Structure formats: structure tokens, C-alpha cells
Amino acid sequence: QRRGIPEAILAEGKTPAQVVALAETALETTDRALLTRLSDEQFAALEEAIPETVPDATFDRWSSSLLIRTPDYERPSLEATVGLVTAGTVDQPVADEAEAVCVDAGATVDRVDDIGVAALDRTLDQVDRLREADMLIVAAGREGALPTVIAGLVDTPVIGVPVSSGYGYGGDGEAALSGMLQSCTVMSVVNIDAGFVAGAQATLIARTIDAARADGSGDGK
Amino acid sequence: QRRGIPEAILAEGKTPAQVVALAETALETTDRALLTRLSDEQFAALEEAIPETVPDATFDRWSSSLLIRTPDYERPSLEATVGLVTAGTVDQPVADEAEAVCVDAGATVDRVDDIGVAALDRTLDQVDRLREADMLIVAAGREGALPTVIAGLVDTPVIGVPVSSGYGYGGDGEAALSGMLQSCTVMSVVNIDAGFVAGAQATLIARTIDAARADGSGDGK
Amino acid sequence: QRRGIPEAILAEGKTPAQVVALAETALETTDRALLTRLSDEQFAALEEAIPETVPDATFDRWSSSLLIRTPDYERPSLEATVGLVTAGTVDQPVADEAEAVCVDAGATVDRVDDIGVAALDRTLDQVDRLREADMLIVAAGREGALPTVIAGLVDTPVIGVPVSSGYGYGGDGEAALSGMLQSCTVMSVVNIDAGFVAGAQATLIARTIDAARADGSGDGK
Amino acid sequence: QRRGIPEAILAEGKTPAQVVALAETALETTDRALLTRLSDEQFAALEEAIPETVPDATFDRWSSSLLIRTPDYERPSLEATVGLVTAGTVDQPVADEAEAVCVDAGATVDRVDDIGVAALDRTLDQVDRLREADMLIVAAGREGALPTVIAGLVDTPVIGVPVSSGYGYGGDGEAALSGMLQSCTVMSVVNIDAGFVAGAQATLIARTIDAARADGSGDGK
Amino acid sequence: QRRGIPEAILAEGKTPAQVVALAETALETTDRALLTRLSDEQFAALEEAIPETVPDATFDRWSSSLLIRTPDYERPSLEATVGLVTAGTVDQPVADEAEAVCVDAGATVDRVDDIGVAALDRTLDQVDRLREADMLIVAAGREGALPTVIAGLVDTPVIGVPVSSGYGYGGDGEAALSGMLQSCTVMSVVNIDAGFVAGAQATLIARTIDAARADGSGDGK
Amino acid sequence: QRRGIPEAILAEGKTPAQVVALAETALETTDRALLTRLSDEQFAALEEAIPETVPDATFDRWSSSLLIRTPDYERPSLEATVGLVTAGTVDQPVADEAEAVCVDAGATVDRVDDIGVAALDRTLDQVDRLREADMLIVAAGREGALPTVIAGLVDTPVIGVPVSSGYGYGGDGEAALSGMLQSCTVMSVVNIDAGFVAGAQATLIARTIDAARADGSGDGK
Amino acid sequence: QRRGIPEAILAEGKTPAQVVALAETALETTDRALLTRLSDEQFAALEEAIPETVPDATFDRWSSSLLIRTPDYERPSLEATVGLVTAGTVDQPVADEAEAVCVDAGATVDRVDDIGVAALDRTLDQVDRLREADMLIVAAGREGALPTVIAGLVDTPVIGVPVSSGYGYGGDGEAALSGMLQSCTVMSVVNIDAGFVAGAQATLIARTIDAARADGSGDGK
Amino acid sequence: QRRGIPEAILAEGKTPAQVVALAETALETTDRALLTRLSDEQFAALEEAIPETVPDATFDRWSSSLLIRTPDYERPSLEATVGLVTAGTVDQPVADEAEAVCVDAGATVDRVDDIGVAALDRTLDQVDRLREADMLIVAAGREGALPTVIAGLVDTPVIGVPVSSGYGYGGDGEAALSGMLQSCTVMSVVNIDAGFVAGAQATLIARTIDAARADGSGDGK
Ligand SMILES: Nc1ncnc2c1ncn2[C@@H]1O[C@H](COP(=O)(O)O)[C@@H](O)[C@H]1O
Ligand SMILES: Nc1ncnc2c1ncn2[C@@H]1O[C@H](COP(=O)(O)O)[C@@H](O)[C@H]1O
Ligand SMILES: Nc1ncnc2c1ncn2[C@@H]1O[C@H](COP(=O)(O)O)[C@@H](O)[C@H]1O
Ligand SMILES: Nc1ncnc2c1ncn2[C@@H]1O[C@H](COP(=O)(O)O)[C@@H](O)[C@H]1O
Ligand SMILES: [Mg+2]
Ligand SMILES: [Mg+2]
Ligand SMILES: [Mg+2]
Ligand SMILES: [Mg+2]
Ligand SMILES: [Mg+2]
Ligand SMILES: [Mg+2]
Ligand SMILES: [Mg+2]
Ligand SMILES: [Mg+2]
Prior knowledge:
- 8 copies of one chain form a homooctamer.
- Chain A is an alpha/beta fold.
- Chain A has helices spanning 16-30, 40-53, 92-105, 120-125, 127-132, 146-151, 174-181, 195-215; strands at residues 9-10, 32-36, 58-62, 65-69, 81-86, 108-112, 135-140, 158-162, 188-189.
- Chain A is globular and about 50 Å long.
- Chain A contains 8 helices and 9 strands.
- Chain A has a 5-stranded parallel beta sheet with strand order 6-5-7-8-9. A 4-stranded mixed beta sheet of chain A has the order 1-2-4-3.
- Chain A has 2 domains: 9-69; 81-211, Rossmann fold (3-Layer(aba) Sandwich).
- The mean pLDDT of chain A is 94.
- At the B-D interface, loops of B face loops of D.
- Residues 5, 7-10, 36-37, 97, 194, 196-197 of chain B line the site of one adenosine monophosphate (AMP).
């Protein structure tokens, strides 16, 4: 495994056969395969092929992301919670990609959907819950204002994920990306639609927190 | 007077002598001169020259905007209120330009400064007051999220003004402009730093409302 | 209902089944559903499904926008007129989206098509009619000069809508958008192809005018 | 002389001494020197140096362009008229550069300033006069709508010159450039602020017309 | 007919039925119809429909451009030659659009294909021929160097047409467009792929030359 | 204090007097003032004014960032280490801004300068040391490859800071920004030159780790 | 043959029939045809047609590039080695295009795939081998860091090829292109996805080296 | 010395004292210092300081580049010639930077200035001379057509250097950069104004050729 980079297979741009082969190798060597940006056709190929080689594999799917495990696989578990927030329905597939990565790494994910600032009451209703998480991933398209607003209300680190859900000027995610980079509150940002990177970065932070909890003096300092 | 365009002298790119001459002509023909984007040098030239030609002229200044009136000038008065909002200190000169135009046109201006979403409590504290205005102008730089948040909380039309107050990617106002154009709430927008245009558009709406109030059936329908 | 944001279902990016479900919920709770950016397939699904749940629903269609109402629905009525102007045939679907929103809100819409500045006589012939409206929405693609020319001829507020109807440099609507933002006359602007936002902003202005007419002193001041 | 390229010295980026030397060489070899984009310092250096080498030289200046001629120089004369139009005061220096080139080439220049579309009556008042010219150069900044409107009203070729006179999005001349390239009427375009190129292209057309007039059958066909 | 704008029907974005209807109206009122950017399907629809309404119509086709004439149509004839040059095979459809417009207007077209600067001998071989034309249209994609080189070799006006034939950075025609705008020789430019505009501008120049020839003193001055 | 946003005064765009006033208020209310993007003139004004109001204030300076504390100020202390890395000398002022924020918040900063990938040996020599930190901030201009390389070698979270230190295409920091967003390893990113934001985000992570250490079971799990 | 430009047929944008005709002409006149950017359909057409005209032709294929030779063709041979490196699987088709050109020219190609910097050990393992080549072509997408890292480790010239393999901001190859242009090590660059140009440039260098080896004094200076 | 990167001190952004110190260290350790992008002030500081520490140092200057050597320095000598070409006067400082690097490395430089394609005769006159060099560096601003034309006429590798010498759209060097990347002939490219990188890349090729000449069989194969 590459150091510090959660291992996943990016299915986009590969043939179904190539995807199946890569998944089979991963299962054979690590009892686990995480795939992202799967087309329906690629998913169908996996659903058909894998049960033949690994009859009792478990399939967990989040939109176009898929986690396959053999019965032998020992899931990691991290004592850390990632709050995973979306502004609108259209941002959910991007968040799903992040969720797959975090769950696979053993972090607890607290998912809160559809609390964009157009309905600010719904946003504010969730603030107490969001404050419980160790860190937040916030995915938002169009003007991408949600991570800015949330980062002003919580004390924990926020990772903004711009989503390419608009149309017209900046609608390919550049309005959201530049807005998050310019945010008057504090956050760090990943590429447009890069749910995988957000989830992986959250995983790295979660591991650090988990290690700190394990190491901790326990003196409640 | 050009139809429907509030008459102002754009000082930028003119010599002090040219600016003085234009102001003198305006005062002579209309008893009034509105100037925008004045440098300190241009302002000093006006302060020296105008009192010689129009001894009892009145000077009203908003940052780099200036309204000069002779005693004969009859100010218009509009039965309409423009709420004028800024996110941060750095947005105030742009809002000042809008204020000069609205005041000159006779609208009531309700100015609320420094309520950017980084301190959301301060934003929310002003919502009831903002709902009182007939329309709002909201100036914001960096990610420009304030008009989006406000437009979700009020029922009146909002005009967003992006401000070139950031640095880095999109910091020249393009992050704020694209964010307002992509807003998940409803607003219309003017060019980056275009306080004049926002004020002029608000003035046109204010005149329509004023006329409607004058025409109105009064039946409280 | 979200404050001040006309409620509509953006069909783009949803499955026909999702669109039907959202329309049914809207009809059930508010006796009305407004849908925009419908594909023909989504439209067909609605035409088939809705009459089963709401047998006597009324369908009004403007290009890819659709307003469905139950017999119980009480239409609002606003004492305000929106002039809705297009430069060319290709701009009409964008204007249709704005028209659907304004009509749904109860405003009177005065639609004037195909008066782009390439045939300036046709533009000038309509000026008196355009002056009658309380405000104007002007949709134009390519170089987007029409709203600039009209805004110089009328005293009422103009909302420019850039349309992505060109090709080559700036043909995706950025020439029209930047031209309207740079306009030497006064207007405010919405995003490229954002007929919905233009209609919604006009609706908010129309409501303000309608309220002013109702409140008015009636003294013809 | 380079074929078909009016010979001018681009002063920008050269030292005063270099500019003087180039002008002296041009005068010595061709009895004439045309300079563009001169700074005041470069102009002063020329005014001091040239009368020493060429005591009776004639100086003609248009803003930052300068034509120097010895008494021996025989001016060309072309039977062709270039209409040279500006939208606003700020566009005049760019038009001056074009004028210098056309006058130097011997074309008649009919200059019409400050008829931008914000005051459309002033534009329309000049149409009959503009129709008299053999071709038009139209310089306009901000949204650059003037050449589009004029090209719809005349039958002669129009060359659009975008000017970098705005601020905000597209204010560096890109709004005007893209608007002219997207124009719904017919024109060709030169680079932003390229008065020299517009004048040179008009000169090439003028030479062709002049030759056609000389060749012509005279049968008034 | 709009003043100075050659009348053509832009087929792109219209249904075959709409295209047929527009062509029939044009034939009925002017005995002529010029169509550009036709798809094969639109072309087939015309080929089927027109002979029914206008049995003896003539069809002339240049790639996706089509000129239909009734037997009654009297073709104009202009005493002026347009040299029409392409750099490579891929630029030919854009030049075809220009050719259709010029031929329809009655100008003589001298077409020279595939003389891009990668094989400079082939370019130079054609220079004498190119010098014979009254003006040149030069279409070139990728880096668009051909019009720059030709404009340095001839004395007549050159209109550059950038073509979107590349890939990678600037391959959508922006490399060619910016290169032509920056040209160190003199030319004017039209939008990317805008063969129609280049042909129309050449037509306007050709009409001016034709009129000059008709008016000319014939003294061979 | 705004929730979760380290409190700093952005000096850029303020007068020396405004900066002094803001610093005095901060010192009065919180015994501490952190200022960023100070000019030399603003710094001199603070050095002169503050000792008069707060005679025994401590000054700590990092390039254009300044931390002023009264003797009463109780510094926080966090059990967390931020590795702070630069690629070249030119990136150091940006890293200094981040360092000021982290030190002010009480985190331990391990600073490693000038280990850009052009001298990869120097980069690799530091890897063991970098692995010791709880998280890394890596500032790099030009092509910004350093955070990508480091993130592939360590297991801890990396925050990339693009620096505007190049020239030519992408030299304003956009090459580095886009490179970090596209990184084939995992990191999150802040705006170009945004040392403050990187330091603030690292501070938020450090607080979470510090809390985890305090809470921890101490069972060394 | 054009001087110094390896002769290839760019299949993209041509019909299968045109591609076959061009290949046949090339085979007839030069006993060889190199084709790039072939679609499967174009490839099938060649596979069917060529054996009929040239029964014993040899086909060598690299992804979408194809080299066809008659038995009479005498292959050139160059005493020079091109190291051809890719960062990831997705970069291989672009490298294949370069390989086809180099092999066709007679250079030795040493191909090393999939050594991107995310797994830096794999990169470093190949450095000794890479140092053996006379020059390197390095193809990389996303952030394009691989050529920067390699160019810092070898003494031979490196040609970077940016690949359009990312998504989001800069994912169309502009992040990789700008990163390579900004590289803190030394390389030259070709257009995004321009494997052909990289291979052709390497071929020109290889010919120069081959000639130098042939000319050389052999004194082992 | 870093492998394969010619060692130079980039003076831009450093104080005169820092530049002097870096030069002194370089002279002390390697008897040589190469500096680029020197301001006049930095140059003056070196001229004053160096003769004190190294009394008999030699100074060679090319515009803003400077090579200082002690008498002990043994210059390398490469059996390879770099042809160094500029299009216009304004491109010379960029070429000077490349020349300094090549001369310092011991290559022979054959410099040919001011042969831009606007005067194609002058370009063609030099072709035979250009063919003598082992490789060419061609610097050109504005539309950057010169390297395209030359690369079509010679068989040796060409490195294009785009120069930021234009104004308006693409005038910052992006027109020239994109034109060279899109070139219909074959070349590789460096960043805008990157004379240093072009010279360094040429140096690496020259070293390879020099080694090949030394190794060569001498059989004149
Ligand atoms: N700050 C401003 N921004 C944009 N337009 C302005 C501004 N101030 C004045 N104007 C407009 O510019 C016109 C005056 O331009 P001028 O004739 O050059 O003084 C006025 O009629 C206004 O429409
Ligand atoms: N203002 C200008 N803009 C663009 N090109 C110009 C301008 N003035 C002169 N030129 C061109 O630049 C060339 C002179 O360049 P130079 O040799 O540097 O003086 C002339 O031959 C013209 O083609
Ligand atoms: N260098 C900086 N870059 C970006 N944001 C900053 C910087 N320094 C301070 N800030 C933020 O800007 C706010 C202060 O802005 P102001 O009220 O204008 O002083 C602080 O709360 C910080 O969040
Ligand atoms: N993949 C490619 N990318 C860029 N240029 C190419 C490519 N393949 C061939 N070429 C060039 O394009 C020319 C062939 O163009 P064509 O005449 O359209 O087949 C050749 O002479 C090559 O210089
Ligand atoms: Mg890592
Ligand atoms: Mg108006
Ligand atoms: Mg609202
Ligand atoms: Mg010429
Ligand atoms: Mg016309
Ligand atoms: Mg926070
Ligand atoms: Mg060559
Ligand atoms: Mg190297």
C-alpha cells in the first residue's frame, strides 16, 4: 500500500474487464477492493464476475463507489467521527464517494443531507449535531456557500468539496471552488467533485485523532 | 438627461481640470453634479474651484463619490427605502458609491455595515430590519456569500454587488461574481465593484415603487 | 415555502420517476407544481402519471417549463406588468422559463419577441410599448447588445439575461454576460440562460410594486 | 517598406534615445516618420532632437501618435474616405492612433466622436453622415455595442476596435472584443486598443478603392 | 433585407421543418435562399421538400452551406475578386461557408487550398496569384500563422478566419484567434469558424470596390 | 471570538492609523493582537504607538506577520506538532504567516525550509523528520510539486499552500494551485499565498488532536 | 517529405475512406504510412482495404497509431536511445503515439511505464536505467510532477508531455501543462496529449546525435 | 551542482545584498557565478562589491544576465552549436538570457536577430545559416509565428520561446505560447520569457551531442 494514500481503484476510463481484473487482484492480495466512479455496466460486470471467484464476498455500494470484502477481511476501526454534509440532492453522489472511503477506513460517518443555505433554518437546526463530529466534510455546488457558513459556526476543521452542479458562468464547479478558496471563514479544499480526496484526507486526520486518543494521557486535561 | 440612467460624472481617467469643468457645466445647467471614482487630487481641485463659481454650493461626500448642489437645487424625494448592506469594512467604499446615487435620487437609504457571514449571529440580528426595506443592495467580496444568505431570509428583491477585495484565485472579484450568479437563492447582480450601477438600478426600482404608491388605490388590498 | 424564492422543481439531472414524485408531492401539499428544464421524456412521464393521481389537473407549458394546477388552486394576482423581450428565436426558450415563473406568480407578462438590434427599426418600433411595463426582462445571446440599447430608451428597471447561443470566442454566453455587466446603460444581470432567476427576481419586484399599489395613498402624487 | 504594412515605429518599450534614432533614420531614408504609443518623455526627446537634424520638419500629433515630415516629403493622396467613430471620450486616444495612420496614407478621415448607444438619439443623428464614408472604423470600450448597432444601419464595411476602458469582469477589453466577434451584424475586428491595426487595415482597403476609382470604367454602371 | 448584412438562414439549432419553412418563405419573397450550418438531415429535408413547391429550383452546395434559386432569380454581379485561402484540409468547410456568401453576392472567388506554412514552398508558389485578388480571406487553424505570413507578402487587405481544428491548449481556435489579433503584419479578424462573417465582410468590401470601379474616372490615375 | 476562526487583523488595505486602532482594541479586550500582511509603514506605526499604550508589550514578528502580547496574556499550549515545509526561499514569507498563526495558537511548529524537489536528495533526507509531525503544511510555488511528493511519503495529513512565485503561464500561483488540486497523492489545499488559512486550518486540527490526547484512554490501543 | 517534420497522417476528423486513400498514396510513393489518432472504425477500414492493394504489407500498431510498411521499405536506423516514461496507465496511449514516431524513425526506444511520483520508490528504482538513454520523453497527467522529478535526477534533456487525464480544475491537461512550464527543474514541453510532437522532436534530436556519433572523432575526448 | 540543471542565481525578488552574498559564495566554491534577471541596482551592487573580494574577476553581461569568473575558472567547451534567433528587437533580452547560459556551458552560439516573418525575405535569407547549427532556439512575441516557419525549413530540433511583448488579447505571451504549442511544424516549447530554461535545455542537448561526437566511431557512417 502506498503510504498514506487510501488504496482505491478509479474505474473511470477502464473497460469492465479491466475493472474486474483489478478488483480480483485486490481481493486476492488484500481481501478487499474499493472502487470509485463505476458505471452501471462496470458494476454489472463486477456483480457477475466476483461471486464466481469469491463466492461469499460482501458488496457495499454508495452511488458509483463500491466496497467488496471477503469473509476474511478484518475491518479497521478508528475512534473518530467524520461529519459528512451536503447542500443539495445533486451533491450526494460526490459525498457518497467520500463516505465509501471513510467507512472503509473504519471511521464513523455522520451523514447530514440537504441543508444548503437557501433554507437557512434547516442549516442552523443541525449545528449542534455538526459540532459533535471531530471534523467535517461539506460538499456544495453552485455558489458553494454552505462550508463557509458552517465553518463559521463550528470549531472543528472543515474540508470543502466544490461540486460541478451549476450551469452558466462558473457552473462547472469553478464558482464553488473559488468561493471556498476565498472563504471569509477557515477551511481547506479539494478539487471539484473530488469526493475521494476529501474522504481520504478526512481518513488521514481521523487516523491521527485515533492515534492521539490511544496515546492520550487520559487525564482529561 | 439620458432616459433612465442617473446622471453621474465618472472621474476616473480624467484630469482634475476636466473634472472641474464637467462639474461646473452640470451645476450651471442642472444645479447639481454627482461625481464618482474621484481621486483625492480631483477632490481637492473641486473643493478649490467650485466655491469660486458657485459660492454657496453644498458638498456631500461618500468615499470617492461627491454630490454638489446649488442652493436652487430642488431635491427629489421618493417614497421608497433601499437597504444597503456590506459584509466587511473593505466593501464600504463600493457601497458608498451606491449610497450617493440613491440619496441623490431621493430614496431613503438604510445602511447596515459589516454583517458578513463569518459572524452569522450579527447577520441574523439584522434580518428583521432588512425585511423593512423595499429592496436590498448587498456588497460582498472574497467568496461573496452574504447576498445569498440574506436573499434566503427576506421576500424583497436583492441586488448583489461583488467586490474585488480578495487575493489569489478569484480574488479580483470573480469568485464573488460567479458565486452570486450561481446563487441557490434569487438575486440579480451588477459588475465587480459597480456600486454606481447597483445604486442606479435600485433608484429605477425605487421610482417605480414610488409611482405605484402615488397611483395606488389605497384600498389596502 | 422558502422566503422570497419562488418554488420550482429543477428537473435537469433527475430521473422521470423522481420528477413525477416531486410534482405529486407539490400538488398534494400546495395544489400546484412548477417544473423547469424538463426533457421530453420527463414531460411524457408527467403527462402519463399526473392525470392518474390528480384527474382534473391543468397543464400549462412554456418550452421546457410546466405549471400544473389542481382545480382547488387559487392563482395569485399581482397588479404589475413584466415586459419580456427576446433578441432572436434562439433566446425564446430562456424567456419562456422566465414567463412561466412570472405568470405563475400572477404578474401580467407582455411578451415581445425577435427585436434584436440587427434590425434596429423593429427594436425602436416597440419602445413605446416597452415603456408601458413596470420593469423589463431582456434575453439576448451572442453579443447581447439588446438590453443595453433598450435600457437607454426606457426609465424602468431592466434585468438582462445572457443566452448561450453563439459559437467561437465567448459564444457560450460569456460575451453576452460580460457585455451586460459592462453596459454603458444601467441594468442588473442574472446568470447565463437563467430564465428562472430573471423571472423570480421580476416576481419579487412585481410583488413589491403590487404591495405599493395596494398601500398607495391614491392621491396621484 | 514592408509590403502592405504601413510603416510605423512602435515607441512603447524603447528608450527616448532609441526612438529618436529610429525617427532620424526614417526621416533620412523616407522623409517621413510615423510613431505610435509615445510617452510624454519620448515626445519631448523628439521635439528637442529632430529640429537639430531636420530644422524645418513638420510635426503632426494625435494623442500619443506623431507624424514627422521633411519639407521634401510628398504626401500620398487617396480618393477614399474612412469614417472614424468613437463611443465615448475614453475611446478617443485609440481612434487617434487610427487617424494618424489613415491621414499619413492620404485617406480622407471623417471623425465622429462620442455617439455611444447610451444616447441612441445621438447615434441615429449621425447615420446619414456615416453612410457617406467608404468604410467605417468604430472604437468602443465597456460592452462595445456601438459597432454592432452601426453595422446594422450602414451598407459599408465596418472594422470594430475594442477598447480597454472598463473595470471588473471583461473590463480590460475582453467584453468588447468578444461582443464584436459575436456581433449579430457583420464586421471584422482588430485587437484590443489596436488603433494602429484598424487604421492600417482601413488604409489597405482605401488603397484598393482608390485604385478601383482610378481604373474604373466611369460608365456609372 | 437588413442593411449591409447578407441575408442567410443559420440552420444550426432548428428542426428540419423550420429550416424548410424558412427556405420556402425566402424563395417566395426573394427567389433565393442561402442556408449555412446545415446538417445532412436538414439538407435531405430541403432536397425533398423544395422541388415540390419550386419544381425548377437550382441547388448549389458548399459543404454545409446551400444556395437555392428559382429560375426567376437575377444573380448580382460584382467587379471584384476575393482570394479565398486555406491552410489545411480541415479548414475547408469554414472557407466553403465564406465562398457560398461571396458567390451568392456575385463576387469572383479565387480559391487556393492547402498552402499552410508547414510547407512554405507551396505558400510562396501562390503569392503572385494571391496578389491578383482585390482582397483575401485566409482560414487557418492550430497556430493560425498563414494569414500573418501572407499579409506580409501582399498589399491588399487580409481577413483572418481562425479555425477550431487543434487539440490541447488553445486548440478550440483561441490560439489561432489570439495569434491573428497579435499578428506582426496587418489584418482584421472574425470569430472562430465564422466563415459566414468573413464572406459577408468581404462582400461589403467587394461592393464598395465594384461601386468605385463603376464611378471611377477611368483616367488610370 | 468568532467560533473556530483564529482571530487575526488583516492589515492589507488599511491605513496605519486604522491598524494601530484595531491592534489597541484587540490588546485591550484580549491581551493579544495578531496581524498579517503588514507593510513596513504599518509595522513602524505599531512599533511607535503600542509601547505608549501598552508599555511592556512583547512583539514577535514573522516577515509581515506580527504577534503582540501584554504581560497578562496567557499563551495557550497544544499537544500537537505542525511540520511546516517550504520548497524555496521565495515561499518563506507565506510559511511565516502560517507559523505565526500556529505558534500563537500554542502548537509546536517544526520548520523545514528549502527542500524543493529540484534537489530531491535534500527532500528525502527530511522524510523521517517530517513523519514525526502530526500534520504537515507544505508551501510551494512554480509547479508546486513538493506537497505531492511529500504526501506520497508520509501517513499524516498534508495541507498544500500554492505560492505566486513564478512568471509566465500559471506563474501567479495557478499552476501550483491546480497542480495541488490534481495531485495524484492526497492533500487538501488553501488559496494562493494563503499562509494564514493554512495555519488556521492546521490550528483547528491541532486543537482536535490535543483534545483527543487529553481525552485519550491512555491504553496505547 | 516536409523538411524536419516526420511525415504522419492525422486520422482524426477524416472519413475511413479518406484515411485509406491517404495511406494508399503514402505506401505507393514511400512504401510506408504512419497514421495517428485512428478510430477503431478507421483501423478496420485500413485492415480491410490495404491487403487488397498491398498484399504483403506489415502492420505495427500502438494504441491508435499505426505503421504500415511494404516489403520494399528500408527502415532507417539511428544510433540513439529515447527513454519513454509514463506516470500512470492512462498516460500510455499518449506515449504510444510518441513510440510509433520514434520507432518509425529508427531510434531505440526504452519504455518504462507507471512510475508516477505517488509511488516514489518505483520512480527512484528506474533512475539508473533512465540515465542510460540519450534523452527522455516523460508523459504525465493530473499534476504532471513526474518530468519535474526525473529532470532533477538525470543529466539528459527531458521533453514533458502533459496528458488530459484529470477532472475538475485544470483536469483537461492545463494543470500538467502549466506545471511543466513552471518546473523548477529544466525541460521543454509539447502540447497536451501531443505524443506525436514529442516523438517527432525526440526524433530530430536523435538524428542530430546519430550524425554526431557518425562524425565523431572517436578519440573518446 | 544539481544534476543536469545549469546552476544560476535568479536575482529577481532578492535584495542587492542577498545577490552579492550568493554571487560571492558561488565564486568561492566554484570560481564562477551566473546571475539572471538582475536589476540595474543589483548589477551596480555586484560591480562594486565583487572586485573587493575577487579583484581580478571577469564580468560578461547580456542584458540582465551576468557571468562572473575568477582567473582560476576553467571554462568548459562543447563541440556543439546553438543557433539563437529572435523575431524582433523586443525579444532580444529574453534571447540574451539563453545566450548567457549556453556560452557559460561552452557551446558555440550563432546569434541571428530581428528576422521576424513580417519581413519574410529577411527570414529566408538566413535559412542556410540556420541549417548549420545543431539545434535552434527561436524567441518570438506577439503571434509567435517565427519558430513555426523556421521549424518547417530546417531538419534540426527547434525550441520555441514565447515572449510577452504584445498588448491586448493574448499579449502577455499566451498567444505566442499557445501558437507554438499548436504549431503545424514540430518544436518543443518553454515558458513565456523563459530564456534561461531554453538555454539550459539547449545546453543539455549540446552536452549529449558533444559526448556523441567524442564517442563517435568516426567512420562517417
Ligand atoms: N462609477 C461608475 N461606474 C460605472 N459607470 C458610471 C460610474 N459613474 C458614472 N457612470 C456612468 O458613466 C456616465 C458618465 O460618463 P462620462 O460621460 O465619461 O462622465 C454616466 O452617465 C453614468 O452612466
Ligand atoms: N501601435 C501599434 N500597435 C501595433 N503594431 C504597431 C503599432 N505601431 C507600429 N506597429 C507595427 O510595429 C512595427 C514597428 O515595430 P518596431 O520595428 O519595433 O518599431 C511596424 O511595422 C508596425 O507594423
Ligand atoms: N492573511 C490573511 N488572509 C486571509 N484572511 C485573513 C488574513 N489575516 C486575517 N484574515 C481573516 O480576516 C479576518 C479579519 O479581517 P478584518 O476584520 O478585515 O481585519 C480575520 O478574522 C481572519 O479570519
Ligand atoms: N497526432 C498528431 N498530433 C499533431 N500533429 C500531427 C499528428 N499526427 C500527424 N500530425 C501532423 O499533421 C500533419 C498531417 O496532417 P494531415 O495532412 O491533415 O494528415 C503531419 O505532417 C504531421 O506534421
Ligand atoms: Mg500521504
Ligand atoms: Mg434605462
Ligand atoms: Mg429572497
Ligand atoms: Mg499586407
Ligand atoms: Mg452593415
Ligand atoms: Mg470554524
Ligand atoms: Mg523542422
Ligand atoms: Mg536534469
